[in-house]
Structure to design on (348 residues):
């Protein structure tokens, strides 16, 4: 049975399902690339979800689910199907369980939790995108992943046309992965997510970047609000605001290693991070040491402060992005033997 905590107050009067034609994907994604989508449907209420899929089925068109567009790349030819955008808003709390509708801005969910002194997602502050997209790629930063607090998601199953609950054990979470972007990609439309948080604060030692910030500033507030402030300042200094600079945030995933691989990397002098989620080498460090930090490649600027981020300064076509990606990944592989993986998904 579908069971969703309703938002405390409505955020507007919903009249009908919005259907637009030939909408440039570049206007819907933060990398600002991509030709027109044949149809875009904004779903603002639960009963419109089956209608949106019925519309696509009637026209025999493929469907792509779009969140905030922060982790999505469009192609020059556009998308000859239906982009369904989750526009359902609302956040509610019961005890220490927070439920957010999928169209809610993720950072607003984090702020909501921190304002109530609840810990568990404060290190995920300022990650762009929607709440519904958060579990899809198991977003994470500075020592926290959304899977750490995830309880369940209310979804629409497009295979049988039923509303269902997916629990944490159903999700197959791993580094930047879940069933929603692997084995069951495209099957489920995320209506809402529920997270279980707890009062208090994160425990030290914190992630390296946070510890360095504390050492340099003398910060002493480690409450959820305090960590949110620290993370927001770190991200603000290192990562471009996609509203001001076209970017998809972290474009490359970090390189995860097994014990043998980590030992071999350390013997070569590579910095291996021992985190709660495993052993890894930061892809930004690899890109920087390969000589790309701050470079402009095919219209894409390698962020000088966080080289795993690509900023679209002058690229107009997907081919420019693809050329920059190939040049970087080939150079890193030739120098270090690691094959970098792209983090954003592509609309195809």
């Amino acid at each position: 049975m579908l069971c969703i905590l309703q938002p405390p107050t409505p955020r507007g009067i919903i009249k009908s399902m919005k259907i637009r034609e030939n909408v440039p994907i570049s206007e819907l994604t933060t990398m600002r690339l991509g030709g027109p989508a044949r149809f875009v449907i904004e779903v603002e209420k639960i009963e419109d979800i089956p209608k949106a899929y019925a519309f696509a089925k009637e026209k025999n068109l493929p469907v792509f689910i779009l969140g905030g567009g922060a982790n999505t790349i469009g192609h020059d030819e556009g998308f000859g199907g239906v982009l369904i955008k989750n526009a359902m808003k609302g956040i509610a709390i019961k005890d220490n369980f927070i439920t957010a509708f999928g169209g809610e801005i993720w950072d607003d969910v984090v702020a909501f939790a921190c304002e109530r002194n609840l810990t568990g997602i404060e290190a995920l502050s300022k990650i762009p995108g929607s709440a519904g997209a958060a579990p899809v790629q198991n977003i994470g930063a500075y020592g926290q992943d959304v899977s750490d607090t995830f309880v369940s998601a209310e979804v629409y199953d497009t295979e049988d046309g039923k509303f269902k609950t997916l629990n944490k054990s159903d999700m197959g979470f791993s580094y930047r992965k879940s069933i929603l972007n692997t084995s069951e990609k495209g099957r489920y439309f995320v209506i809402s997510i529920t997270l279980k948080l707890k009062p208090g604060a994160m425990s030290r030692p914190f992630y390296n970047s946070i510890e360095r910030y504390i050492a340099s500033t003398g910060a002493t507030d480690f409450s959820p609000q305090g960590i949110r402030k620290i993370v927001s300042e770190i991200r603000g200094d290192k990562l471009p605001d996609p509203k001001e600079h076209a970017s998809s945030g972290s474009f490359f995933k970090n390189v995860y290693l097994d014990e043998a691989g980590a030992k071999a990397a350390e013997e070569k002098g590579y910095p291996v991070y021992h985190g709660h989620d495993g052993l890894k080498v930061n892809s930004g460090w690899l890109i920087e040491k390969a000589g790309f930090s701050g470079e402009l490649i095919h219209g894409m600027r390698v962020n000088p402060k966080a080289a795993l981020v690509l900023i679209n300064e002058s690229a107009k076509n997907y081919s420019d992005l693809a050329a920059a990606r190939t040049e970087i990944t080939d150079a890193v592989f030739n120098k270090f033997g690691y094959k970098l993986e792209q983090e954003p998904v592509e609309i195809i």
